[in-house]
Design a protein that fits this description.
Length: 188
Amino acid sequence: MPYNPRIHHRRSIRLKGYDYTQPGKYFVTINVAKREHLLGHIENGEMYLNLYGEAVKTNWHNLPKIYPHVELDAFVIMPNHIHAIIVLKEQTIPKATRQGLPEIVRGLKTFSATRINQLRKVKGVSVWQRGYYEHIIRNEVALTNIRRYIVNNPVMWRTDDLHMSVSLKFPKQIYIDLDTRITMSLYS
């Protein structure tokens, strides 16, 4: 179906007016196209990466080499999505072009999709869903809770909305219960 602006409304889930190039910590979720279990499998609460999952892992670890102001934090690859904390550090190189979070996520998706498609011996096949979910981490308590959520994600796989066979919609908002864990809000 061709694009029709009267019926195809794409709302940005980014915080309006926020500068995503500024230093900070960001919780990111990127989903595999069509929620395909492409990156490996979970057995007894442990994630086992296949070659495609290993390609994502390699490209994740290469991000600081490509973007010197990026620091990697907690990260987990699931069968059909990834969760990560990306830290944008203060720029230390004068007058360098500083890439923002959208460009860094685009880079991760592009580099890993290219490698996965090479392994699959195909060209131009979508690996990732369009867009991604992000949450600005505003304090240390939230950071600790999000790290815990990421680390425990494989153990919680059977109860994860991304495990289910229903169609995925991005959450309207993420709520952080400062005493226990992260929970997602109702889906739009």
